[in-house]
Every structure is written in C-alpha cells, then in structure tokens.
Amino acid sequence: MAEPFQILTSRTVVLADENIDTDQIIPARFLTTTAREGLGKLAFHDWRYDADGRDNPACVLNRIAPSAHRILVAGRNFGCGSSREHAPWALTDFGFRAVVSTGIADIFTSNALKNGLLPVVVDHATWDALAAHPGGSATIDLEACELRFGNHVAAFKVEPFARRCLLDGVDTLGWLAGRIPQIETYERRMS
Amino acid sequence: MPSPRPRTLFEKVWDAHLVEPEAEDRPAVLYVDLHLIHEVTSPQAFTALAERGLKVRRPDKTFATLDHSTPTLPTGADGKRPYVSEEAESQVHRLEQNCRDNGIDLQGWGSAHRGIVHVMAPELGLTQPGMVVVCGDSHTATHGAFGALAFGIGTSEVGHVLATQCLLQRRPKTLRVTVDGTLAPGVGGKDLALAIIAELGIGGGTGSVVEYAGEAIRALDMEARMTVCNMSIELGARAGMIAPDEKTMAWLRGRPRAPQGEAFEKAAERWSALASDSGVTFDREIRLDAATIKPMATWGTTPDTGIAIDANVPQAQSRARDYMRFDAGQAIAGAPVDVVFIGSCTNGRISDLRAAASVMRGRKVKSGVRALIVPGSEQVRREAEAEGLHEVFLAAGAEWRLPGCSMCIAMNGDLVAPGQLAVSTSNRNFEGRQGPGARTVLASPATAAASAIAGAIADPRPYLEARRG
C-alpha cells in the first residue's frame, strides 16, 4: 500500500525522448526477480551504466540527487511496450513520485497509479515550458489536479477512483475484495 | 418494441461482463473468464494475496505456463536445465509452488502443452469467442483473434483477478481498422500488422480497443489473425479483436478445452452473433488497401518504423537511425545480418514455421549468420517435427530449440550480442530489447528466413517464386 499522494513540490528531471518504453525503464533481463523492492538501482540501467557497469556521465540520472528530483518530465508516449509493473516499481524506488508527459501509455498509467507514481498528462505548450528548465521546481497538487511552476498553472485529469485511492493512500484490492457478494450474484446469473 | 441499439463486437463482450457498470466516481467491475499466468509477472501478486490472507478465488479459471525465463536448450549431461541464472530457476520454481499451493493447472516442464502463454491457450481451446481474457503480459491481445476481449495487465491487477476474478476498468474507446482487398503472394499477417502500425503510429491506438475488419482480415487464417491482434499493443491499443466466423469455429472445434459435441454447436451459434451489428459507429475508423502492402521490415527502434522491403531508410537524422547504424536513405534490403530469430507469441506457430521452412528448404544459412528457430509450444514442436520441418532447419544450419519466449525478450540467456543486427519475427525492436546494444529489425517468418539465407535483409518473394517455378 502506497503512502498518500496529496501535494508534491520537487525539482524536475527531463528525459525528452519520445516513446521511452518499459525496456528502457527496466531491461527485461532483470525481470527474473520475485520481489518488488529494491529495483531503483536498475531503473534506466542501460542508460546509466556502460557495458562494464561504470556510470555513464552523460546520463542526467547520474548527476542528480534523486530525493530532490522527484518529478520526471518525459517525451510523448512514455511507458509504451510491456505490461511489467517492475517499471513503476523501479521508478518509485529510484525516487520518482510523478511523471509528466504529453502522452502516457495505458498499461503503464494503470500500473503507476497503483504504486503511488502519479501520471500527469499535459498539453504541448505546458510540457515545452516545463522541459525548458530542467531541474526547476514544480508543484503537483492532486487535490486541485493542478501542475504549477513559474507563473504556469496547468490542469490535468486523473481517473477519479484512482485519484481518491492515491489521496487516501489506499489500494484497489481491498475495495474490490469487498465486492465479492456482487461478484457471486453475477456468477449465479451467468451460470 | 424498438429494435435494440446496434452494438460493436467489443460492446457485446464488455456489456456481458459487467458485474457493476461504471459510474462517475468509479470504474466498472469487469468479470474475467480466463486468467493466464506465467512465472515473470505473477510472483509478487501471489505474495500480495498471502500478505492479506486472501485466496485464489477461481483456480478453475486460472491457467499457468512457463515461458519467459525458461531455457530453450535441453537438460544437460548433469541432469540440470541450463537456466540463465539461479534467480531465473527460482522464479520458475516459485510459480510451480504457487500453482501447487492454489490448485492451479500448470502446463509445466513435462507437459505436452507447455508453451508461450499466447500460443498455448488458443491451441488448447481455452480461449473462446466472447470471453474476457487477461494476462500479465502486454501481448494478451493475441486472443482477440477469436472475438475475445483480451488485454494485458500489471502485477497488481494479476492480484486483483486472482483474489476476485474481476478488474476495475474504464470503458475504452473503439477504433475500427478496415483492410480492403487482397494481400499479394509472399505478404502475410505480420506484414499487414507492421503496415497497420506504421499507418497509425506507436501511440495511435492509446485508449482504444481495435476491431480489425474487412476482406483482407476475413481472408486471413486464424494464426495470421492472432499475429495481427498480437501486435495491437504496439499501437498502444488496449486490445485488438476480430469477429468470430466459420474459420474461428473450424479452428476451435475438437480442441480439448473447447465445448464438445452438441455443446460446441450451441456455443458456435452464440459466438456467431458477436459480430458488430450493421450501422454501428466507432469512435474512429481507418481503412487500408491490402493490395498496396509489400513484405515489411522496420528500420528504427519502435515497431511503427516498418517500411516496404524495397524501400529506403529515411534521410532524416534520428536517435533511432543512429542506434540502428543505418545510413541516411540507404536501401533496407541488403543490410548485413548477424542473427535471425524465428519464433515468439507473434510468429511461433506452425504456419509461421512452415513459411520459414518453405524458404529454407534445400538452402543454407549464410556462413557467419546465427539462425535460431524456437517453436511457440510443445504442440507446435511436435507438429513441426512430424512434418520434418526441424530437419529442413537443421540441414540449413539453423538451431532448433525448445519452446519459449526466447530471444524475443532475451531474459533466458538467448540473446543478440552488442552491436549485432538481428532480423526477428518478434514484436519489439526497442533499444536493447534482444540484449544490450542489440539492433532489431522486425519482419515476417518468410523475410527472416530469406535474410538468413542471404546473410542480409532480403525480400522473400524471389525465394518463394523460385520454388513455384
């Protein structure tokens, strides 16, 4: 169960490439784990490290303090590709609490929302303004559904049920498990 | 009485699975008929259930297989399976244990049906029209070829389905892709899929369920339909579906887990009514002409970069072109190839292997090229070996492996070395997908086989024509 997400003020990290797929976020060869913890060291592994495991100094993720940069600003169609929930597990363990893009893939969105990682989809003008100042400070207010930075205020949408769960720090499994009587009724009706 | 509102195939399946419809403040509770699990995306879900003292609610609607982390080489002289790591082996053992503990049917080692989850379930007849099918795997859309609503889910949702047999879902939008006309000889389902993705773009289907329709879709056999639906996720689509027809019924009839005898005929009648009604509207529609499609190959690092085999790589500089080390405007055909991979949930079925064999028969894989051929399931392996296809591949100098995901996701040790160029019948050409630094060109089984023979990206049609002539 994730900690509640209400308001987040942090610095940004910009990865401007479009179509950053889940194989970039965490390569498949690390998916043999049976745990969900401790995957932050593998986030963007092949971008952060060379073939010998040395830090790639060109990668911005090696030049920041993750605890101070919790907002990832990424190019269009972030999180495309596989359904691996290891992607948001790796990103949150690295330190991210939100991803801001002009488009975020469906399964990634669903997985992120269940792990306290807020997917924020904004228009191109807002994204351009935010991405123009990497490392700048921004505030994401989930109660108001607003992204604020500099003199910009941009509204964003979050699926209302997932938003409620994030605000309250509860997950959906408990809620769904409470619907068993309705599910049993459905099963009787269909049998 | 007014006639009921015309509905799409998707709407009919969706409506029939609503335990509770969606409301402003919460999604629909959607019932799942078939939950497929494998070793990679399930262990943390079983852990989540155990932590809350929840049980697997419907083990009878849950089916497991081993495919992603499994070696494709046989047990060694030491009696051990050659797993890539202890962690991979322990992940497989974890699923075996979870299935034993929860009474879940596992097609494990030794099963005559073990295979890639999206190959195994249809061939057993587990996948049926009108079902909601889910799996912790984005290529679950494959099952939509039967007129099922099938989509990939994350591990949290795997836990939801294990515990309740339901998911919370918002109703997606609908997109119809109509393909008119007839595919030319030597052009198949994979080429069609790559052409559709090139047309719509990698995020072009986000938020939508796609229905594939039209003369060219109807003309596809079931396996090619599975190939087309399989790659719906490469559009970003939630799912892809094709209305059930006589081909669907013929393919399913007699499968061990399908209804039998009288019950099948009754079900078939019900399934036939699933097709979209005339006069339905979709949120979006596009049309393609099948006759204009040629064998396809991708030049970039997203699946929407497919071009005709006789076309040129784009002029414009891009990170993708740099990564692939293609020159501006070079012909894609003729680029030297290091590895050829034929297999995966996209193209690991018997018809795919027949297509590859028809190119390779009596020919040799070019010296220096590694060709790996991996059947999608034990059943595909048996059929291929009964037909002697493995002998064709082995005589050509290719490797013939045990079933699994293998080099498509490259997490079992089957991988492409850094910098090598692979022509692959799989579904993703992302940077490093087939191994760190690997360069992947997506293509059909015939094109992959022709490229193995030529030692370079090659048009399969001359090879097929030489055979006919």
Description:
The complex is a heterodimer of chains A (191) and B (469). Chain A has 191 residues and is an alpha/beta fold. Chain A contains eight helices and seven strands. Chain A has helices at residues 22-25, 45-48, 86-94, 106-113, 124-131, 160-168, 172-177, 180-190; strands at 7-15, 71-74, 98-101, 118-121, 137-141, 146-149, 152-155. In chain A, a hairpin with a 2-residue loop joins strand 6 and strand 7. Chain A starts with 6 loop residues before the first strand and ends with a helix. Chain B folds into three domains: 9-169, Aconitase, domain 3, CATH 3.30.499.10; 173-257 and 269-291, Aconitase, Domain 2, CATH 3.40.1060; 312-468, Aconitase, domain 3 (2-Layer Sandwich), CATH 3.30.499.10. Chain B has a five-stranded parallel sheet with strand order 5-4-3-6-7, with helices on both faces. Chain B has a five-stranded parallel sheet with strand order 17-16-15-18-19, with helices on one face. In chain B, helix 6 runs parallel beside helix 8 (222-230). The mean pLDDT of chain B is 97. Classes of the chains: A alpha/beta (191), B alpha/beta (469).
